[in-house]
Amino acid sequence: RKCCGKPELSVMVGCDITGLDYDEMSERIKATTKFDFVYVHKKKDKGFGHIHFESWEESSQFYYSTKDKHFYYDGDKERGLIHFYGATYYNSTRKVVYKMDTETANTGTLTSVIKISDHNDINEYERKSPKFSESPVSVLYGLYEDNHTFNIVLHTLGIRNKADLLVSSVSNKLIIIEGNFSEKSVPGKSIKNFLPIGPFKAEVELPSGVKTISVKIEIEHGVSTVTLEKITEIR
Predict the structure, then answer these.
(1) Against a cut of 0.85, is the pTM above it?
(2) Gene3D superfamilies per the record (predicted)?
């Protein structure tokens, strides 16, 4: 397939999709959007996947029509949200730059979907659910350095897998770390719930440049550490 190995021909899908395989994910995306795609690469134990398209134009149209929006599959409301992200290049923090076309970017309309921000009828499902953050929540972080690396430490409640953290770079001095706070199912009636739910984002400005293709991620007890290698200055 010509779409394989070409990140610019793909868009990431994530949120509450752990436990779904590629067939189930394909069914949900087809039911949720009007867009055609080749297939979905998704492992059942992962909370993310990649939607593959025939062309850069098709992936771009899909991306600009769905980015920064949150949806849930109309036939499975209890499952939670579906969110679409820009892809990154393999073994890199460099994000795909999608082709901007203002005409085609706004033509994609979504069917069999309820967009949380536009749904005014408060139904039973929404009354039971805590507030979902439409905009990414800013998370606190610590920045440390040694002779060769910068270490960014964040509290990332509910994040267990490295693949659930997306690290990208605006430049070699500005790093963006993104992920999603999932809702924990607890028996009984909720009295108070101040736990964050939905996407989070940390923008970290570094004092000097780093190699954006070299990233190490460690996660332990709800704390994530992102290690970036400094660019060695040649004197």
Answers:
(1) no
(2) 2.60.40.790
